[in-house]
Amino acid sequence: MLLACDEVGRGALAGPVAIGLVLIDSGVRRMPAGLRDSKLLSEPRREAMSPRAAAWVRASAIGEASAAEIDELGIMACLGLAGSRAFAELSAANELIDDVPLLLDGNHDWLSASIDHRARVVTRIKADRDCASVAAASVIAKVHRDRFMRRAHDARPLYSWDENKGYSSRAHFAAIDEHGPSELHRTTWLHDRSPAPTLFDLSVG
C-alpha cells in the first residue's frame, strides 16, 4: 500500500490551492498509457486522462485551502491544511495501515505535521515526472482545480480565469487594475507585480 500526493495552484494569484492524494495497493494494474505529470499534458489530454487515472488507483481525494485561508495563514501552512483535508477524506473511506508510506513531490515535507505523522512521508524531487502514482495525483487535482476556475470564470468573466486559471498574466493584472480584486484573489500577493518566474510561471501546478 502506498499513498502519493501532489499540489496544484500553489503559485496562482486567484483560486484555491488543491492537493491530490491517491492510494495504490498491490492489485494495481499497468498504468494508463500516456499518464504523466499534469504540466506535461495539454488541457484536453488532462481532461481525458483524469478519469482513467482515478480508475487506475484504488482511491483518490482532493483537499483545498481557499484564497482567504492563504491570505490569513500563508501558502506553506495552507499546503498542509489542504493536504490534511485530502488525507482525512481518504482515510475515512479506506483502512490505511500504520506508518503507510506517502510519496510527496519536492524536497520539503510540508505534510507530516498536518496529518499528525500518520503516514511516513518520503519526499522526492521530480516525483510528479518520474512516478506514475504522483502523476495520477497531479492530473486528478489539476483537472479538479481547472474546472473550479472555469466555473468561477462563468460566474465572473472579468479576469479570463478560463484561460489563465488564476495565474499571473498581463491580462489578469490589467483586469485587477480595472475592476479590483475579487473574493477569489489572494490579496496579500497582489502588491508584487514582478513575481519570480518560479513562483508564478503559468506552467507550474
Describe the structure.
The chain is an alpha/beta fold and 205 residues long. The chain has 8 helices and 5 strands. The protein has helices at residues 43-56, 67-73, 75-93, 127-130, 132-155, 161-164, 170-179, 197-200; strands at residues 2-8, 17-24, 59-65, 100-105, 119-124. A 5-stranded mixed beta sheet has the order 3-2-1-4-5. A hairpin with an 8-residue loop joins strand 1 (2-8) and strand 2 (17-24). Helix 1 (43-56) crosses helix 5 and helix 2 packs across helix 3. The protein is globular, with a radius of gyration of 17 Å. Residues 194-205 have low confidence and may be disordered.
- Our measurement of the CA-to-CA distance between the termini, rounded to an integer number of angstroms, reads 26 Å
Count of runs of 4 or more consecutive helical residues: 8
- Using only CA atoms, what is the Rg? 17 Å
Estimate the mean pLDDT confidence: 91
Helix content: 40-55%
- Strand order, sheet with most strands: 3-2-1-4-5
Query: Which stretches are low in confidence, meaning pLDDT under 50 for 5 or more residues running?
Result: 194-205
* Beta-strand share of residues: 15-25%
Shape: globular
SS elements, strand count? 5
- Largest sheet properties: 5 strands, mixed
Structural class: alpha/beta
Order of helices and strands: EEHEHHEEHHHHH
